[in-house]
Amino acid sequence: MTAKSTSSGQIKVGVYPGPTGRIIVAPLHWGIQHGYFADADVEVVICEPEDHPWYAAGRGDIDVGLSFIDYCAWPQLRSKIVAVAVHEQFYPGHGMTCLLGRTELFESGRLTGDPASAKGLRVGLLPGRGDDYLVFSGVLKQAGLGLADVTRVPVPHGGQARRKWLEEGSVDLIIGRRPASVAHEVEAGHVRVWKRGDEIYPDLQARYLVANTGFLGRSRPLLLRFLSAYLRGVRAVRAGYEEARAGDTGGIAEVARLTGEPVERLLSVKPVGYHPTGAIDLERLGLEVDELRSAGLFPAGLPVDDVVDLSCVADAERLARQERSGR
To answer: CB 159: neighbour CB atoms within 10 A?
Structure first.
């Protein structure tokens, strides 16, 4: 999908493949549909990399993509990508990411709403992924626990291998990030939703927009216009959810149409915590990175400043305010 523009400014945006990933970038699709990017003289080309957006951005196959902060510090990606905005944060009442628990554990009373009940369980945690680590760390530390208090098993995020783990009951807690996938696994009867988003790790800066550093150096004004339009889409999608809570479902119906997620499903889960300004809280990020460092998932000597660019979102937000005042 492409947002047409009269400008020659084209930006390639990497997203997660498949229809269930569209909800994660709903503001992008909203902005394209409603001409926000065209208004900003930006032509958006959506790309679905064969591997992951962060790898594609590092190679320069795309200009901007979604990522988690620890990937910006990986040796193969360091200095090739930089986080320019918070895409998602687990605000109160927000966060589509969930932890799923084995059904039998709920029925037996072994797993309850108390985070302490996770002690001794088997958790699906792939090695080397800081984003997954923080999800489990966040819920465990609420009970004064850590990853040493559970057993880690390398369950993948999807595919037949994941289904096999679930069907055989070989894992007790596992991450779910896409509502359709979660709904299918719950319907199969093997798992139930245990906790979501802000219940897992309140206010975690969970996902970022990252830019290829070469593109950023060459085309910073274009990136700022893109971010300004994207943030406009964020505000529109957030408004759709807020209006739905007040009984007006017009906006959420538009989100459903653009993403392929039924309205009923969108309203049955916590909304993605799209960040209204994209501003990176550097102090908070430092604390989150400290957790990753303690687990060996972020280089000990690498300053947090080296993997973020705070000036982009600040300048993009100034553009957004100018646009709002001019409309």
So the answer is: 8
Q: How far apart are the first and last CA of the chain?
A: 27
**Same structural domain for residues 80 and 177?**
no
Q: What is the pLDDT along the chain (327 residues), one digit of tens a residue?
A: 555 433 459 999 999 877 668 899 999 999 999 999 999 999 999 999 988 999 999 999 999 999 999 999 999 999 999 999 999 999 999 999 999 999 999 999 999 999 999 999 999 999 999 999 999 999 999 999 999 999 999 998 888 889 999 999 999 999 998 888 898 999 999 999 999 999 999 999 999 999 999 999 999 999 999 999 999 999 999 999 999 988 899 999 999 999 988 999 888 889 999 999 999 999 999 999 999 999 999 999 999 999 999 999 889 878 777 766 766
Clarify whether residues 14 and 45 are in a common domain. Answer: yes
Neighbours of 138 (CB within 10 A): 23
23 and 57 inside one domain: yes
Q: How far apart are CA 14 and CA 64, in angstroms?
A: 6
Same domain for 178 and 231? Answer: no
Q: Are residues 164 and 36 in the same domain?
A: no
Of 142, 174, 199, which residue is a domain's last?
A: 199
Q: Helix, strand or coil for residue 73?
A: helix
The CATH number of residue 12's host domain is 3.40.190.10
CA 24 to chain centre: 7
Domain count of the chain?
A: 2
Distance CA 233, CA 238 (A): 9
Question: What does the block give as tokens for 20?
Answer: 């269930």
Residue where a domain stops, chosen among 199, 218, 251: 199
Those residues whose C-beta lies under 8 Å from the C-beta of residue 201, and which sit 6 or more positions away, are: 90, 134, 135, 137, 138, 139
Using DSSP, state whether 117 is helix, strand or coil.
helix
Same domain as 163, residue 62: no
Q: Report the DSSP beta bridge partners of residue 43.
A: 10
